[in-house]
Amino acid sequence: METLRLVLLFVHILGFAALLGGLLVQAREETRSVNPLVRDGAGTAFLAGLLLVGVLEAGDGDVNHAKIGVKFAIGLVILVLVMVNMRKPSIPQGLYLALLGLTLLNIAVAVFWSPAHA
Hints:
Strand content: under 5%
Oligomer: single chain
Structural class: mainly alpha
Number of domains: 1
Distance between the termini: 15 Å
Order of helices and strands: HHHH
Largest sheet: none
Helix content: over 70%
Shape: elongated
Radius of gyration: 15 Å
C-alpha cells in the first residue's frame, strides 16, 4: 500500500507541476490559453488526488478530511475552469490569474496544512 501511495503522490505532484508549468510558460505572452499542459496537468492532479485519498482511506493512516475537502474544492474549480475554456483560442487575463492563483493556493494548502501526508 505504501508503494502505491508514493506512486500516486508522485503522479499528483507531476500533475501540479504540469499545470503550473503550463500556466507560467504563458506569463509573458500577449494571448493566453488553456494549453495541453494545463489541461493534462489539471486532470492528472485531480484524478491522482482522488485515488490518493482512496488509498489513504483504505490504509491505517489518519486522513485530514478538512484539508482534503479544501483541496478537492479548489481542484474541482480549477478543473471546471480548464475544461470549460479548453477549446477557446484565448482566455481573459482575469481567468489566467485566477487559475494561477488557485493552483498556487492548492499547492500551499498541501504544503502548509498539517499533517504532511494527508
